[in-house]
Amino acid sequence: MPGQRIPATILTGFLGAGKTTLLKRILSQPAGRTFGILVNDFGEINIDAALIVEKGAERISLSNGCVCCTIQADLVSAIASMLDNTPGLDHILIEASGVSRSVPIADTLQCEELAQRICLGGVFCLVDAEGFPLLDYVSTELAIDQITGADMVLLNKTDLVSPADLDTLLHRLNDLIPGMRIVPAVDADIPMELLFDLPESATAPAHRHDEDSHHGHDHVCGPGCGHDHHHHHHTDAFESWSWQSDQPVDEIRLRKALRSLPASLLRAKGVLRVRGEAGTRLLEYQQVGRRSRLTAADALSQAGSAVVAIGRRESLDETAFRALFDACVMEPAG
Ligand SMILES: Nc1nc2c(ncn2[C@@H]2O[C@H](COP(=O)(O)OP(=O)(O)OP(=O)(O)O)[C@@H](O)[C@H]2O)c(=O)[nH]1
Predict the structure, then answer these.
(1) Quick check: helix, strand or coil at residue 177?
(2) Which residue owns the Cα nearest ligand 1 atom 21?
(3) Which residues form the CobW C-terminal domain (predicted)?
(4) Residue of minimum CA distance from atom 16 in ligand 1
(5) Which of 47, 125, 191, 249 could make an SS bond with 150 (beta carbons 3.0 to 4.6 A apart)?
């Protein structure tokens, strides 16, 4: 219908909680919807966008910053251009970076440029049931901020915790945010109706807007707008490092290198072209805290290798990080 506003759903949650897993699940069960997706990765290289091979969705990748603050204006222009260039879109899905706050994104979607074109379809926060209790103070503060700005929490990775620990965490979250709907899940497997049939009344008060109220956010700030801006972003507490190579890496050396990454690493992910006993193949690398996974990535098409790592600022020696991966690279065949 001309003039109808398209709902935009925000998937948020701390690094590695399962946002991409949920996004892929939604795309695999479209129920007739045509999705436009915007994937924000805090790192310089957008690994998440490379990992989403599901077809039938328009996509824009937003890298090297956080859509809630440092690249907020990019989010607005990306959505506007997606709406201009993709007639027939039914729904927009935004995967925020793992260090994004929820409420500023929801507010941004209601800026003047977009207010007549999209409406907020809900903010869903993924929480890693195993990882959340292990976060340091600053990361916990951010994860709680993401939770409080959400309409619903998906308490994900419940397969990795005992029933007693899950119960303790549920009580803790209920105490923190009384009344918040919390849905336990494994691999973000929840009924899709929970995401798409959200009653208007369920919208989180933190970002519930009425026609007359724009919380002062009917304008996305940029250089020269005249507002007094804070120059410290919450993302200053985090740092990302990336590594790329055109040459294949040796599988044995890679597996050894991954075991020697520092414990301070919060998150790492990548796609690696690996040469080993099984020949040359692409592997997806996922690391959340101390838990790492290398899996076959046959569906991906990528010439070389790329890895992104994220940690608290100054927690990782970039030279050592690069040297670790450089040492895995195989010499070009002579
Ligand atoms: N055991 C277990 N692993 C999970 C579950 N959900 C996701 N994972 C794994 O956790 C890792 C991170 O999942 P992602 O979906 O990439 O997490 P994310 O929130 O998108 O990560 P960032 O965008 O980097 O913040 C991947 O290896 C997933 O396969 C779960 O319920 N249980």
Answers:
(1) coil
(2) 16
(3) 238-329
(4) 20
(5) 125
CA–CA distance, 194 with 31 (Å, rounded to integer): 14
Residue 87: strand, helix, or coil: coil
Q: Does the CB atom of residue 187 touch ligand 1 within 6 A?
A: yes
**Please, what are the averages of pLDDT over each run of 10 residues along the chain (334 residues)?**
81 97 94 92 83 80 76 86 92 94 89 92 96 95 95 97 98 94 97 82 46 36 40 76 93 93 92 90 93 87 87 88 93 64
User: Whole-angstrom Cα distance, residue 27 to residue 90?
Assistant: 13
Classify the complex by whether its ipTM is higher than 0.95, answering yes or no. yes
Give the amino acid at 37: I
Q: Mutate which of 20, 68, 95, 101 to test ligand 1's pocket (most atoms within 8 Å of Cβ)?
A: 20
Q: Is the CB of 189 under 6 A from ligand 1?
A: no
DSSP string, 29-76: --TTPPEEEEEE-SSSS-HHHHH---SSEEEEEE-SS-TTTTTHHHHH
Task: Read off the amino acid at residue 297.
Answer: A
Out of 15, 21, 258, mutate this one to test ligand 1's pocket (max ligand atoms within 8 Å of CB): namely: 21
Tokens at residue 180, please? 């918040």
CA angle 92, 190, 185 (to 5 degrees): 120
| Beta bridge partner(s), residue 280 | 275
188 Cα to the center of ligand 1, angstroms: 9
Q: How far apart are CA 197 and CA 189, in angstroms?
A: 16
**How would you class 253 by CB atoms within 10 Å of its CB: exposed for 0-12, middle for 13-18, buried for 19 or more?**
middle
The CA distance from 334 to 324, in Å, is: 24
Answer yes or no: is the C-beta of 157 below 6 A from any ligand 1 atom.
yes
Total number of residues shown for the chain: 334
Residue in 5, 183, 28, 176 with CA at minimum distance from that of residue 91: 5
